Write the C-alpha cells for this entry.
Amino acid sequence: MPDVKIAIQLASLRLPFRKALPAVARLGATGVEIDARGEIKPQDVTQTGLRELRRMLDEFSLKVVAVSFHTRRGYDVALELDRRVAATKAAMKFAADLRAPVVINQIGHVPGEAGGQAWQLLLQALADLSAYGQHVGVVLAAQTGSESGSDLARLIGALPPQGIGVDLDPGQLIINGFSPLEAVQSLASNIRHVHARDGVRDLARGRGLEVPLGRGSADFAALLGALEERQYRGYFTIAREDVDDPELEIGAAVKYLRSL
C-alpha cells in the first residue's frame, strides 16, 4: 500500500494561522485544510494577501488539500439559497487560487425518495455548483454523515457525471449510525477527500461520540485497503473537536496513520 498522505485541519489546532503552519510541519503532515468561514474569508483576501498565503505555505513545504466552507443551511433549503450558492462559488474560486482541489460542505438533507421541492432544489443548486467547479477546476465535496453512503450515491447518480465529489468522514458516519465501509463501497470513485476522524455509538444513550483516532469503531486498516482498491490517491486530513491538547492528540493521530 502506498504511503498515506496526511494533512491537518488547521482549525483543530486552535492556533493563529501563522503559528499553525509550523506546528503542522513539526507534526509531520504535508497538507492543510483551511476554513473559509472562520480562519480566512475569501472576500477579505486581496491578490497581495494570496501571494503572502502561498509564500507562508511554501516556507513550510505545505499544500492546501481542502477548503471547508460550512454554510448554516444546506442547498435543499429555499431561504437565501441564491446567496448561499454565490458564497460557495466564492469559496471555490478561493480554493482554486490556493490550488486546492476540493471545497467541503454539508450539502443538506438528502430526501429518502427522488422528487419533491427539496430534492429539486438540491439537484439544481448542486448542478450549478458542479458547472462552476468545472470552470475553476475545483470540486464541491459533500461531507458524509447525515445519510448513508447509498443514499448519497443515489443523489450523485442523478447529477451530471463527476458533478460533485464526496468527503468521506468515518467518524461522522459512525456517530450517526452508518457504516464507513458501506459508504466506501457505495461512493467509490466519487470520494475526493477523507477526514481521518473516529467515533463510537453509545447505545445506552442513543447517540454518538467523537474519540481519538484508532480508539473508536472505524477500522482504518480496512478503510485504507478498500480505498486503495478503488485507486484513491488523495489526502487523509486529521480533524478533532473539543480536545484539551490538540497538538498532542493530532501528533498521536499522525503516528497512528503512519503505522497502518
